[in-house]
């Protein structure tokens, strides 16, 4: 359960979050809103990658870790980006094991096989470099990377923004499955209504306020 209590974020020229209070359960949630409304800011705040101007954020009643020297944020949370951000000179397996190592968690080849399975990728893909994979496959590796260290919250910032319709559907279905079958809390910032409609809850962010749509 993710809880925001009276969270405000003020930048010199914008106040994307203004006294936002919100509770999100272990399910899938879409955040929609115009460009520049603060969706990425909201995700960074939930993940502890950025400290709010005021207010508090917790996961399962424990405050998120926001050590300023540690851009990775809270270890319970992983962030997925539109442009995948895999390390280009490492294989799929090395990318996954590096993510575990960075979280100081010991993982093996068997764990790599297991998380690749959760994103419907064959274990035989472990030796490939990211550039040899399609965009949809790279995004699925990025989701697997977010799973390998055992995080309970996945934040996805426009995860399908660079994908075609078929891959958008596939990646969205995987995120929905992880939320519904594996009990993760998944929060997706998206411009794509077809993505938002598939998730359990929808919020619109506009002028500093979050309004629940469904
Ligand atoms: N580090 C920062 N310093 C100053 N202003 C910032 C910073 N980060 C974001 N902003 C401003 O805060 C507002 C919200 O930005 P944010 O990137 O969170 O919006 P967004 O909804 O994710 O946008 P998009 O959909 O275009 O990605 C914008 O006006 C942006 O210019």
Automatic annotation (TrEMBL):
<dbReference type="InterPro" id="IPR003439">
    <property type="entry name" value="ABC_transporter-like_ATP-bd"/>
</dbReference>
<dbReference type="GO" id="GO:0005524">
    <property type="term" value="F:ATP binding"/>
</dbReference>
<dbReference type="Pfam" id="PF00005">
    <property type="entry name" value="ABC_tran"/>
</dbReference>
<feature type="domain" description="ABC transporter">
    <location>
        <begin position="2"/>
        <end position="213"/>
    </location>
</feature>
<keyword id="KW-0067">ATP-binding</keyword>
<protein>
    <submittedName>
        <fullName>ATP-binding cassette domain-containing protein</fullName>
    </submittedName>
</protein>
<dbReference type="InterPro" id="IPR027417">
    <property type="entry name" value="P-loop_NTPase"/>
</dbReference>
<dbReference type="InterPro" id="IPR003593">
    <property type="entry name" value="AAA+_ATPase"/>
</dbReference>
<keyword id="KW-0547">Nucleotide-binding</keyword>
<dbReference type="InterPro" id="IPR017871">
    <property type="entry name" value="ABC_transporter-like_CS"/>
</dbReference>
<dbReference type="InterPro" id="IPR015854">
    <property type="entry name" value="ABC_transpr_LolD-like"/>
</dbReference>
């Amino acid at each position: 359960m993710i809880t925001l209590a009276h969270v405000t974020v003020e930048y010199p020229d914008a106040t994307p979050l203004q006294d936002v209070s919100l509770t999100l359960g272990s399910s899938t949630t879409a955040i929609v809103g115009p460009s520049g409304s603060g969706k990425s800011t909201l995700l960074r705040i939930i993940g502890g990658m950025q400290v709010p101007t005021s207010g508090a954020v917790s996961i399962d009643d424990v405050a998120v870790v926001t050590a300023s020297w540690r851009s990775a944020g809270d270890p319970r949370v992983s962030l997925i980006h539109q442009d995948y951000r895999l390390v280009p000179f490492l294989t799929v397996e090395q990318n996954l094991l590096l993510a575990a190592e960075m979280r100081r968690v010991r993982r093996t080849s068997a764990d790599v096989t297991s998380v690749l399975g959760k994103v419907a990728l064959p274990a035989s893909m472990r030796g490939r470099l990211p550039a040899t994979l399609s965009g949809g496959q790279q995004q699925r590796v990025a989701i697997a990377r977010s799973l390998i260290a055992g995080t309970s919250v996945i934040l996805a910032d426009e995860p399908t923004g660079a994908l075609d319709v078929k891959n958008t559907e596939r990646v969205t279905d995987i995120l929905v499955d992880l939320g519904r079958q594996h009990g993760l809390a998944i929060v997706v910032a998206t411009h794509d209504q077809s993505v938002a409609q598939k998730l359990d809850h929808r919020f619109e962010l506009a002028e500093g306020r979050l309004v629940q749509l469904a």
